[in-house]
């Protein structure tokens, strides 16, 4: 895919090569077209036209010798001459051209702007004679009046727009607290049922210690009244006893140092816990991903390389003082790895000299003594440890020595692990227990490193910039580094956001070049650039001050790429509309051209901007903060880009036209003349060079002997032919002319091919599936930290963690709620207690006492020895009541009760005393009243489990608990619920998928409405729907071919790009209906292609290039957006120029708006009668 995009980029950025080949192609097309029209056909057309003219002249009854004006609804094109009227306008006379053969529509001058010019500035008479007293001028609409005013005073409009835009931009960026959040906070659903439950459960979990030891109620008061900060951000413990005794600035924990030097650290939770941020290496053999791997890390060469790499890394850690050093040796302790176990194995498992093992057995010694027999013995010891670990993780706790099954293979559980340190299954991969012979493809090394922020930053710099840590050379193994908390990945992600955003500058450069080439005017390019750049701060002004959004995630910077690509599209449309109008009205004033071209351009851009903006705004229904902020900001960007186009580019076009009419040769205005070509106005006024409009109007060359205006038929034939040929002078128009001739000639064959392609893509696109896991990768697969995560999934410890499952939490006393700003991760929530919670009654106590039995019977215990707090409380009462020396907590608070339930007035002081006595934090109280009770139970999923499994467990738990709440729970304890962080991530993914479907529906509905409004034809709307269907299925099929799955990021991007996919079709469909009356489909299709084709092609080019620039970013979301954008624009271009156009050319209506006009007339007529 990248090779294809690179090839396309090279082709697109080679204008000379493109011009050369397109010229050759066009000349061949034109020669073929000319040869196909033989002399007989020309004679036939001429005779038919002459006969038709004679019939019309016989039927006409002119009142004088005044020239005859043909009806404006005829399908012939018109060419104008100028005569001044009373109000200073220009009067244009028309003469008919020969009728058109619908089978071979010739190239001809479009008449849309001429027709509009007749209506507003030189209306046709009500009879066949020219009688200006009997004519009706169609009044200008409000947009046309505004355009005329803009053309009369362009500097005034331009300066006012600039002043207002700069003031609002300054206010937004200066006082709007503009800052980019480059961290990954906020990527969780908020305000949903699952999200609210998880929020309060997380609030309890993070503050449990403080709440449990709060004797004054201050902590409870603070949590209930003050908004808490982001739970994913750094937190500070309130209680000094909960802090580690650290040496200032070094993160040196004395307790951890003792644990490390004594050997207790190895294999412990402190080693494994992510919060300790230990340096963590994953190793992989060279052929680990092969179908039948042969290499093993247990081989002598691999063990030697692993030993050397660890020693080099330890040396780098010592140099940075980032590791724990035991007092005896003063050197870093060895990491927990296969090398450590091998050394212990060779020394007879002597742990007394753990910190000097590397001196006792060097890497060279290890290699020389690592014989096949030693390797076999060590492998057997590993198998024993692995089998023991599997048994400990097995659900069948009664099976002490039996058979257990893992990955469809039965394993005999044998004796405990023989190593003197605790064994962790992180040193072998998940296939080790089942492969014969047993080989290790993946392994790991845990380094005992310090925990301070300074040390973590130092290790990251050493790994990322200095490349200080040894990764081996890839033969026979290679390694990747991160910390147990994936801190390096997070730090790298934050760092590359700035680099990826800097690529937007490259996108801007491509856009500027494209605008200069298309407009051929540095002045118009500058105005277009201001339009794009000012839309960003203006959008932020509304985003912050009006929408009230203070969180600005890095995701919003995708908007830079989007607005540079789509903003240029609006510039192209405006410029092309103006130039088309000027081509058709060479003698019109700037005010007249503006009155016709600018409202038409504004309307066309409004249609496409609306669909794109609605696609973004529709995504704002997502309950995930960064996605909502991104959708709102990008929607505002599109809106303000449209507004700035009107307020900046439109006045600039008026100035541009006035300067050219005045004969300006300034290269900053137009550089055509610098290349030896005439500019737009010079081309049209070539026969009247040096004459102003009034002089032209009275020029005797254009009047007959009586002084009356000449008809076009009476004018010089060579001048007439030259004027007609000027219209398609540009290369791009000649290309589109030739392309249309070929498409028209083979239209039925192209129609069949388009239908077959659509059907084939639909079948292939149906193979798009959801991902196997719910995890979302932020970095590409080739990145070291992403590889670290991917390789870690192959460790046996990861498999056992899934086998062990996790835990779900049931809460009483806390209402599910999220009281913070859901669109600002920095404001999280307050603690919301359930005022109806009352466990003191006898019924409530009995229910809580029996509840866990039913719960564990259905779902299992989180641990074998775990008991619910009420069961533990009941057992404590029984023990204390029969003890000869009961505790003071019992004697002073329980009044001698022997078991639960206890009297209501005894319950609170007694159970609180028990919780303090045994240090059970499942009971939380304030002011002597129990406020929260927590129960833990078994969960069999993790956050990265497939969505189907997550949904199944959530639903099973919820159904069971709902039955309990409804049928069994007494009042006071009937509002409990369950929560799990994995469920929250499942809800986040699920809400993103719902957002994608909802936003897609909104975008499709808006697109259908806009297309119908623009075309006023159900037939064309149907054609457009077919073209959009092709775009979606073709783009999806390409992504299936690239190996994509439909994750939540892909779904959201699809929903957004639905709005973009219909832009080109809207432009062509609108142009198809620009002719009034009955005009054959061939002429309409050809006009739509040549009228909007250049703008669409230029817009596709800029969007292609913006996508190509984005592909070189590293953040996965950016790259996926780029690929989808590229595929969407590619197939949108095909869908517009092939699918939609061939449908119009084969089946397009001659009067597309006939039904609409009929219904409008009926409705308006009925309204008038009423």
Summarize the structure.
The protein contains 40 helices and 13 strands. The protein has 1170 residues and is mainly alpha-helical.
Map the helices and strands.
Layout: H1 2-12, H2 15-36, H3 39-59, E1 83-84, E2 90-91, H4 112-120, H5 142-152, H6 154-175, H7 193-212, H8 218-225, E3 246-247, E4 252-253, H9 254-262, H10 269-272, E5 279-285, H11 300-320, H12 338-346, H13 357-360, H14 363-369, H15 372-393, E6 403-406, E7 409-412, E8 442-446, H16 453-464, E9 477-483, H17 487-519, H18 522-546, H19 558-584, H20 590-619, H21 625-661, H22 680-684, H23 693-698, H24 717-725, H25 731-745, H26 747-765, H27 784-792, H28 796-804, E10 806-812, H29 842-859, H30 869-882, H31 888-893, H32 904-918, E11 923-926, E12 929-939, H33 947-967, E13 977-979, H34 981-1015, H35 1018-1041, H36 1048-1061, H37 1063-1072, H38 1081-1111, H39 1116-1147, H40 1154-1169
- Indicate the structural class: mainly alpha
Averaging pLDDT over every residue, what do you get? 77
Q: How many distinct beta strands? A: 13
Main β sheet profile = 4 strands, antiparallel
Shape: globular
Unreliably modeled segments = 1-46, 48-110, 125-134, 235-252, 396-402, 681-728
Number of distinct helices: 40
Note the beta-strand portion: 5-15%
Helix content: 55-70%
Gyration radius from CA atoms, angstroms: 39 Å
* Widest sheet: strand ordering: 11-12-10-13
Distance between the termini: 63 Å
């Amino acid at each position: 895919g990248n090779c294809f995009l690179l090839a396309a980029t090279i082709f697109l950025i080679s204008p000379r090569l493109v011009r050369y080949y397109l010229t050759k192609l066009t000349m061949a097309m034109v020669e073929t077209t000319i040869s196909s029209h033989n002399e007989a056909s020309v004679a036939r057309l001429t005779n038919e036209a002459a006969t038709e003219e004679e019939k019309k002249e016989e039927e006409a009854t002119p009142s004088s010798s005044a020239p005859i004006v043909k009806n404006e609804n005829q399908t012939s094109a018109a060419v104008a001459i100028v005569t001044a009227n009373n109000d200073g306008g220009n009067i244009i006379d028309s003469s008919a051209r020969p009728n058109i053969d619908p089978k071979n529509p010739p190239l001809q001058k479009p008449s849309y702007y001429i027709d509009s010019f007749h209506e507003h500035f030189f209306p046709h008479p009500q009879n066949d004679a020219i009688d200006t007293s009997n004519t009706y001028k169609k009044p200008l609409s409000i947009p046309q009046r505004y355009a005329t005013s803009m053309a009369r005073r362009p500097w005034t409009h331009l300066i006012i727009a600039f002043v207002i835009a700069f003031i609002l931009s300054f206010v937004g960026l200066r006082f709007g607290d503009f800052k980019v959040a480059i961290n990954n906070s906020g990527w969780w659903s908020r305000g949903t049922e699952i999200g609210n439950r998880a929020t309060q459960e997380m609030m309890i979990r993070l503050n449990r210690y403080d709440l449990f030891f709060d004797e004054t109620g201050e902590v409870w008061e603070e949590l209930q009244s003050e908004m808490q900060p982001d739970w994913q951000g750094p937190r500070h413990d309130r209680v000094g006893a909960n802090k580690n005794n650290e040496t200032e600035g070094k993160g040196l924990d004395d307790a951890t140092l003792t644990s490390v030097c004594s050997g207790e650290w190895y294999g412990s939770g402190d080693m494994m816990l992510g919060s300790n941020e230990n340096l963590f290496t994953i190793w992989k053999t060279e052929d680990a991903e092969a179908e039948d791997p042969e290499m093993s890390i247990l081989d002598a060469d691999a063990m030697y390389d692993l030993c050397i790499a660890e020693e080099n890394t330890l040396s780098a850690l010592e140099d940075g003082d980032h590791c724990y050093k035991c007092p005896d040796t003063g050197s870093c302790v060895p990491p927990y790895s296969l090398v450590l176990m091998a050394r212990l194995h060779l020394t007879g498992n002597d742990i007394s000299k753990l910190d000097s093992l590397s001196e006792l057995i060097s890497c060279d010694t290890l290699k020389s003594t690592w014989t096949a027999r030693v390797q076999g013995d060590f492998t057997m010891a590993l198998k024993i440890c692995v089998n023991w670990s599997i048994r400990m993780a097995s659900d069948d706790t009664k099976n002490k020595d039996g058979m257990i099954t893992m990955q469809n293979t039965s394993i005999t559980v044998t004796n405990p692990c023989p190593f003197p340190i605790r064994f962790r299954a992180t040193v072998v991969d998940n296939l080790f227990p089942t492969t014969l012979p047993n080989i290790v493809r993946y392994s790991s090394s845990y380094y005992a490193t310090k925990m301070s922020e300074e040390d973590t930053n130092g290790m990251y710099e050493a790994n990322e910039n200095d490349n200080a840590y040894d990764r081996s050379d890839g033969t026979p193994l290679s390694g990747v580094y991160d910390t147990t908390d994936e801190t390096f990945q997070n730090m790298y992600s934050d760092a590359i956001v700035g680099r990826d955003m800097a690529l937007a500058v490259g996108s801007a450069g491509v856009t500027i070049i494209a605008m200069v080439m298309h407009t051929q005017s540095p002045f118009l390019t500058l105005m277009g650039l201001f339009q794009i750049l000012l839309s960003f701060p203006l959008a932020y002004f509304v985003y912050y001050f009006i929408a009230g959004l203070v969180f600005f995630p890095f995701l919003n910077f995708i908007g830079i790429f989007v607005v540079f690509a789509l903003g240029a599209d609006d510039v192209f449309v405006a410029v092309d509309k103006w130039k088309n109008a000027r081509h058709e009205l060479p003698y019109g004033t700037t005010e007249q051209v503006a009155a016709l071209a600018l409202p038409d351009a504004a309307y066309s851009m409004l249609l496409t901007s609306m669909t794109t903006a609605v696609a973004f705004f529709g995504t704002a229904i997502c309950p995930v903060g960064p996605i909502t902020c991104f959708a709102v900001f990008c929607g505002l960007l599109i809106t303000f880009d449209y507004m700035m186009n009107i307020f900046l580019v439109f006045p600039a076009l008026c100035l541009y036209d006035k300067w050219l009419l005045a004969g300006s040769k300034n290269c900053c205005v137009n550089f055509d003349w610098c290349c030896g070509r005439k500019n737009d106005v010079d081309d049209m006024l070539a026969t009247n060079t040096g004459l102003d409009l009034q002089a032209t109007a009275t020029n005797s060359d254009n009047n007959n002997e009586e002084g009356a205006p000449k008809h076009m038929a009476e004018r010089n034939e060579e001048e007439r032919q030259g004027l007609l040929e000027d219209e398609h002078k540009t290369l791009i128009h000649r290309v589109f002319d030739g392309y249309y001739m070929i498409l028209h000639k083979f239209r039925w064959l192209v129609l069949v091919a388009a239908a077959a392609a659509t059907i084939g893509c639909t079948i292939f696109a149906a193979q798009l599936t959801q991902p196997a896991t719910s995890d979302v990768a932020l970095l590409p697969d080739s990145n070291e930290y992403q590889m670290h995560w991917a390789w870690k999934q192959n460790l046996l410890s990861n498999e056992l963690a899934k086998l062990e499952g996790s835990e779900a939490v049931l809460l009483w006393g806390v209402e599910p709620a999220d009281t913070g700003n859901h669109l600002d991760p920095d404001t999280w929530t307050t603690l919301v207690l359930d005022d109806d919670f009352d466990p003191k009654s006898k019924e409530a106590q009995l229910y809580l006492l029996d509840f866990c039995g039913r719960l564990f019977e259905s779902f299992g215990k989180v641990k074998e020895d775990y008991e619910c707090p009420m069961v533990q409380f009941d057992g404590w009462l029984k023990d204390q009541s029969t003890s000869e020396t009961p505790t003071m907590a019992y004697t002073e608070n329980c009044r001698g009760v022997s078991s639960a339930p206890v009297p209501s007035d005894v319950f609170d002081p007694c159970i609180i005393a028990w919780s303090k006595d045994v240090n059970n934090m499942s009971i939380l109280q304030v002011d002597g009243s129990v406020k929260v009770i927590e129960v833990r139970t078994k969960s069999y999923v993790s956050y990265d489990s497939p969505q189907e499994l997550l949904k199944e467990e959530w639903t099973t738990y919820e159904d069971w608990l709902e039955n309990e709440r409804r049928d069994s729970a007494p009042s006071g304890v009937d509002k409990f619920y369950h929560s799990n962080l994995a469920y929250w991530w499942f809800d986040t993914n699920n809400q993103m998928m719902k957002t994608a479907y909802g936003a897609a529906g909104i975008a499709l509905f808006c697109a259908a409405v806009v297309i119908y409004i623009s075309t006023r034809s159900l037939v064309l709307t149907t054609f457009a729907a077919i073209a959009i269907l092709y775009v979606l299925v073709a783009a999806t099929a390409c992504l299936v071919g690239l190996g994509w799955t439909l994750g939540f990021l892909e779904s959201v991007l699809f929903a957004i790009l639905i709005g973009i996919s219909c832009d080109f079709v809207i432009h062509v469909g609108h142009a198809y209906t620009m002719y009034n009356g009955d005009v054959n489909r061939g002429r309409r299709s050809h006009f739509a292609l040549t009228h909007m084709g250049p703008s669409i092609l230029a817009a596709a080019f800029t969007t292609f290039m913006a996508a190509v620039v984005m592909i070189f970013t590293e953040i996965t979301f950016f790259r996926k957006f780029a690929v989808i954008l590229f595929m969407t624009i590619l197939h949108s271009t095909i869908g517009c120029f092939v699918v939609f156009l061939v449908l119009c050319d084969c089946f397009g209506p001659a009067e597309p708006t006939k039904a609409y006009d009929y219904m409008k007339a009926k409705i308006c007529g009925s309204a008038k009668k009423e």
